[in-house]
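Data card: per-record layout.
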Amino acid sequence: MPSKSFWKSLILLATAVAPAVNAHSWVEQVRRIDNTGAFTGSMGYPIGYMNRSALDFNDSLAQNKILSTATNPVVCKPTAGAYDKVNRLSAAAGDHVALVYQENGHVTQPNLTPRPYRDGIVNVYGTMHHQDSDGINDVLNSWTADGKGGNGKGQLLATHYYDDGQCYQNAGHNFAIPIYAARFKEHGLEELYCQTDFQLPEDLPSTGTYTVMWVWDWPLITSDTQNTTEIYTSCAEIELGAAASGNKNAKIDYSNKNLIQSAGISTQLNIQFEATGLGIGTNSPLPASGTATQDQTATSAATSEVAATSSESVSSSTKKHKGGVTTTTVTAEVETTTMWKTVTVTGADNAQQSETSAVASSSAEQVSTSAAPAAPTTNVPVTSISKFLKARATGQARRAADE
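The structure for this 403-residue chain is written out next.
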């Protein structure tokens, strides 16, 4: 009769070749990135790490799931004993870091549930002053890149899409799944983990621990004006040390010899705030048509879905496209700070929208829900660091523009 360990191995194998989309995601590895873009040094682990091969592994225990923000639930799992058996990542001020996770079918099978463009946004936050009581409302859309937002305890380090543009999970060579088939063909690997890359602040001390928070904003879209909250978070402590001689402020000179499974993603390393607004659905947004006086390299996917206003001098023009979508071309002065404003969009009976000049704001951070779907809260990034400062009108804002 087959042993218990045999059946456990068989179950693990079945899970590996047929990822369950009902399983969600959490950070599983924390990697330091060297000046060539490659992973380097010993691997670190998140708070609450669970090894997938452990007999008692359960993804519901590994993840931190938030379905309502009403009670301001905590962002991180308890830190007590978190690093008794696993290591923190060791890094220094200015180092680049990758938070690595599996897509669990969300990237390769995005049409199973109505979700935001590229499966939502991952925001990375950091703090030297973490407490277990830090709540999601204290952090998400509160902490800003300049460290002055919210309670001022931390700062926004990066924003990227959950789908990093290259990752996929083992689907057992089921090439009827188009995204899996295309990426398997391109990379030739059984699977490729996803990652979120960011840079540690350059003014961090050379001793102590720095806590980073990976916050995946993945609302369920119930209409073009409403969504329901679904957020997943992972946190990790980084052991700070002195920067290597000549390494501080060093730029990434990405090597084309890097193995894709063992390196950061060049676009994420070059563009700190890649994703600045939730998109709607799985369709690619309209191509950017705006320009700004900033020589930062960007791709249309990396800078799409931006709903932007600027406190600087801004000129804008609107253009109608087929399908009734209005896009706005915005030209702004260069500025190196990012601020965030929250605008509440109510339901259809009492519709509101945020609008500055010709820039219409829509799309969707979420608010807490109970039984009934709630109207979304919209993130409006106020920034001029992006090459493309473009607003996309959706839902009520688009219909209002058509009238």
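Known properties of this structure: Helices lie at 4-17, 59-62, 136-139, 178-187, 266-270, 395-402. The first strand starts at residue 27 and ends at 33.

See the next section for split statistics.
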